[in-house]
Amino acid sequence: MAAMVALRALRWRLLSGPRAARRRLSDFPVPEEKPQFPGASAEFADRLEFIQPNVISGIPVYRVMDRQGHVLSPDQDPQLPQEAVLKLYRTMTLLNTMDRILYESQRQGRISFYMTNYGEEGTHVGSAAALDASDLVFGQYREAGVLMYRGYPLDLFMAQCYGNASDTAKGRQMPVHYGCRERHFVTISSPLATQIPQAVGAAYAIKRSDGNRAVICYFGEGAASEGDAHAGFNFAATLECPIVFFCRNNGYAISTPTSEQYRGDGIAARGPGYGLLSIRVDGNDVFAVYNATREARRRAVAENQPVLIEAMTYRIGHHSTSDDSSAYRSVDEVNYWDKQDHPISRLRHYMVNRGWWDEEQEKGWRKSSRKMVMEAFEEAERKPKPSPQLLFSDVYRELPPHLRRQRAALERHLQLYGEHYPLEHFEK
Amino acid sequence: ALQISRGLWKKYGDKRVIDTPISEMGFAGIAVGAAMAGLRPVCEFMTFNFSMQAIDQVINSAAKTCYMSAGSIAVPIVFRGPNGASAGVAAQHSQCFAAWYGHCPGLKVVSPWSSEDSKGLLKASIRDDNPVVMLENELLYGVPFEMSEQAQSKDFIVPIGKAKIEREGTHVTLVSHSRPVGHCLEAAAVLAKEGVECEVVNLRTIRPMDIETVEASVVKTNHLVTVEGGWPQFGVGAEICARIMEGPAFNYLDAPAVRVTGADVPMPYAKILEDNCIPQVKDIIFAVKKTLNI
């Protein structure tokens, strides 16, 4: 300590003494004044100071509209044409209607399980509209609106939930675990956050083959706590992948509120730690989600770098049909978001303000969308289940001999004793 | 990357050979994702002990996805690396995972012994459209083997799901995989001097297991001893014995089948203890003599 004081004093004398005019130490860059560590490049600090995590006034929330659908800064309005905006609105409301009916059908014992998207419809359609149709989507389980925006038909949504013979997944998954190769939507997988490093790997593969395609990876703020998320973010940055990470921060992971999920400034604040471009947006503002996703995608592809978007929103429904959220949150809280800050209402206000929508169209659309959903629903109920033969396929790419034998044994068994089984409910 | 990919980076560069941050769940995950998006990745675990940190990606994602997506998503990936006991690396670096991975439908699991096995099975695994786990052995990396002209040719493949008779015999069938195959052959050489001719079957593939080759051998010799480095409970030997009982070969057994396995303890570090925790040639000889009642 004393030595340092002496050294400083010496430098001061050298710098300001009679020789100072001829030669200053600062004229000669001295290597030991800048850290040379391979692990980080920064200046030295000679005061002991901890970095205080900023949670009171953290990363701001980007928005375009206020809660009444008024655009705050006109230059931020993406100027989407009327048809495009109507598509956003119709997709969100159709999803909402389908959710209501399928949730009820679970309550009535018609399907085994369901998850609604109430309150988060804006995050789905805003981001889906900003992507190219061929961009690869890895979801968690609450992104059905993305698939709906891409044109996945109602009867296939229902077929998957009912596990009937029209289900492209052959009845193998729990409801809402949709997948569609043609629409570039990877099959939903239950374990949380496993899709994050997979999305990065896919982005890496895509980078090698196609310079114009991006990957988007959706996950909740709870899944972001998984180790897979940490690994995925880090790898995306080190491998320079064209990927958009889209975090739906909806306030709850089943019953765990964000105050117990993390102590930092949400998920967006973690991005810079990994070297990711990061932004926080109002997830209930479709245009904010659209603008952020569009720019994120553009940069991810142009610069081969990952971008992190944290969309703040609120999960209005229960986690799933296996959850009753009144056990851990107040009805008032839920009502606030449902009535005062809902993506569907906000977009409707915008459309009404522009003269693109009115009460009559709203009534008409509610009626026709409900009719579409009910028709698909009744159709799905009527259809048979997949054939028992499908029990054995797709374990491997090719049917192995031992499963072939078992399938043949089942067939023989059913030929003899089929009348004891409810075969009429299954496709042949 | 340890020794196996040495030279590959120089030849193929950064795009084909990738060093990643240290996270098994991370790099197994990105490899699975890359396979889903159309590449044919080879994912190396420094040892399969660390694959436990990625086990969800291997089982829930790689193994089950073809089935759960009803065939629309293929995962043509190879997970490879050293498996089982090495020398003086203690419990967390010495476990054998043949039974763990062999348990799961959706995976194929191979376990080479010789150089020809290693080359042929790796090629076959990469070319296979299913997820394959290739369980190599660190101590075998340094052991030279004779290789035939055919085995040295460019497209030499060892088919997955076929066992190989390494030594023909008439008195007892020894079934093994990986390094213990060598021990079986040594035991067979010793026993031959006493007039006992052992037939040594190298499984080569754990899943799908070529039980037909084992059955044919048992029908011929009437005695069965399984040898493996892994723990006894729920192991490869247990599966072989169960299948023999379920099949035609049961009627040809003149004595109960016997398993020679690793000791049912976490691998100790002290050399004298470690040596006695894995099957040695003398243990195989003892088991054969007990089975043959000599």
UniProtKB/TrEMBL annotation, chain B:
<dbReference type="InterPro" id="IPR009014">
    <property type="entry name" value="Transketo_C/PFOR_II"/>
</dbReference>
<dbReference type="InterPro" id="IPR029061">
    <property type="entry name" value="THDP-binding"/>
</dbReference>
<keyword id="KW-0313">Glucose metabolism</keyword>
<dbReference type="InterPro" id="IPR027110">
    <property type="entry name" value="PDHB_mito-type"/>
</dbReference>
<dbReference type="GO" id="GO:0004739">
    <property type="term" value="F:pyruvate dehydrogenase (acetyl-transferring) activity"/>
</dbReference>
<protein>
    <recommendedName>
        <fullName>Pyruvate dehydrogenase E1 component subunit beta</fullName>
        <ecNumber>1.2.4.1</ecNumber>
    </recommendedName>
</protein>
<keyword id="KW-0560">Oxidoreductase</keyword>
<comment type="function">
    <text>The pyruvate dehydrogenase complex catalyzes the overall conversion of pyruvate to acetyl-CoA and CO2.</text>
</comment>
<comment type="subunit">
    <text>Heterotetramer of two PDHA1 and two PDHB subunits. The heterotetramer interacts with DLAT, and is part of the multimeric pyruvate dehydrogenase complex that contains multiple copies of pyruvate dehydrogenase (E1), dihydrolipoamide acetyltransferase (DLAT, E2) and lipoamide dehydrogenase (DLD, E3). These subunits are bound to an inner core composed of about 48 DLAT and 12 PDHX molecules. Interacts with DLAT.</text>
</comment>
<dbReference type="GO" id="GO:0006086">
    <property type="term" value="P:pyruvate decarboxylation to acetyl-CoA"/>
</dbReference>
<dbReference type="InterPro" id="IPR033248">
    <property type="entry name" value="Transketolase_C"/>
</dbReference>
<keyword id="KW-0119">Carbohydrate metabolism</keyword>
<feature type="domain" description="Transketolase-like pyrimidine-binding">
    <location>
        <begin position="1"/>
        <end position="143"/>
    </location>
</feature>
<dbReference type="InterPro" id="IPR005475">
    <property type="entry name" value="Transketolase-like_Pyr-bd"/>
</dbReference>
<dbReference type="GO" id="GO:0006006">
    <property type="term" value="P:glucose metabolic process"/>
</dbReference>
<keyword id="KW-0786">Thiamine pyrophosphate</keyword>
<dbReference type="Pfam" id="PF02780">
    <property type="entry name" value="Transketolase_C"/>
</dbReference>
<dbReference type="Pfam" id="PF02779">
    <property type="entry name" value="Transket_pyr"/>
</dbReference>
<comment type="function">
    <text>The pyruvate dehydrogenase complex catalyzes the overall conversion of pyruvate to acetyl-CoA and CO(2), and thereby links the glycolytic pathway to the tricarboxylic cycle.</text>
</comment>
<keyword id="KW-0670">Pyruvate</keyword>
